[in-house]
Amino acid sequence: MHRLTPKLALGAAAALLLAGCQPKAEQQYTGLDMQELMAHVVDPAADAFWAGSGYEITEAGERDLSPTTDEGWKVVEDGAATVAEAANLLILPGRPREPADEWTKYAKAMQARALEAKAAAERKDKQAVFETGAALYQSCVACHEKFVILPEEDREANTR
Ligand code: HEC
C-alpha cells in the first residue's frame, strides 16, 4: 500500500533538497589555487626529497647528496610523505581539471611514486632514493604534459 503522509512528503522534499545541495557544497573549495598549491606545497616537498638524492658534480669532484644523519634522512622522508598526502589535496572536490578521471590517475600515480620514495628514504637506501626520485619526477612531468603545457585556447578552458 502506498500512502503519502506529510512526514513522508517532508522527508522526500528534504532528500531532494539535500541531493540538490550536495554537488554545490562539494564545489565550495576555499584553499589555495592550483598554482599556489604546486608552488608552496607540492614543489617544496618534492625538492626536500630530491635534495637528498644522488650526486652533485662540482669542480672538486662528485659530492654525494645523501643525508649523513638520521635527522637528514627524516627531512628527505618527510618530503616524500608530504608529496604523497598532497596527492589527496589534488583530488579534493573542486580541484581536478577536466578530464577529471585522467587528472585523478596522474595524481594517484604521483602518490604511488611518492610512497615508494618515502619507503626508500626510510630504509636509507641511497640507490633506491635516487631511482624513486627519478620516477617521482616523471610522475610530475606526465601530469604537466597533459594539463599544463596547452595551446592557448585549451588553456582558457582550464583556468582553475
Ligand atoms: C595531477 C596533475 C599534476 C601533478 C601530478 C603535478 N602537477 Fe605540478 N602543476 C599542475 C598544474 C595544473 C599546474 C599549473 C597550475 C596553474 O598555473 O594554474 C602545475 C604547476 C606546477 C608548478 C609551477 C607553479 C608556479 O608557480 O607556476 C610547479 C613548480 C609544479 N607544478 C611542481 C610539481 C611537482 C614537483 C610535481 C611532482 C612531485 C607536480 N607538480 C605534480 C598539475 C600537476
Show unreliable segments: 8-23
Fraction in helix = 55-70%
Rg, rounded, reads 22 Å
The profile of the biggest β sheet is: 2 strands, antiparallel
Describe the protein's topology.
Elements: H1 6-27, H2 34-50, E1 55-58, E2 61-64, H3 70-90, H4 100-122, H5 126-147, H6 152-157
Antiparallel strand pairs: 1-2
Helix pairs in contact: 2-3, 3-4, 4-5
Bound molecules: heme C.
Note the main attributes of this structure.
5% strand, single chain, elongated, 6 helices, mainly alpha, binds heme C, 69% helix
Give structural notes.
With 160 residues, the chain is mostly helical. The chain has one domain (31-157): Four Helix Bundle (Hemerythrin (Met), subunit A) (Up-down Bundle), CATH 1.20.120. The protein is built from six helices and two strands, in the order ααββαααα. It has helices spanning 6-27, 34-50, 70-90, 100-122, 126-147, 152-157; strands at 55-58, 61-64. A two-stranded antiparallel sheet has the order 1-2. A hairpin with a 2-residue loop joins strand 1 and strand 2 (61-64). Helix 3 runs antiparallel to helix 4 (100-122). It is elongated and about 45 Å long. Mean pLDDT is 84; it is low at 8-23. It binds heme C (HEC).
Report a brief summary of the structure.
With 160 residues, this protein is mainly α. The protein has 6 helices and 2 strands; from the N terminus they run H-H-E-E-H-H-H-H. Residues 8-23 have low confidence and may be disordered.
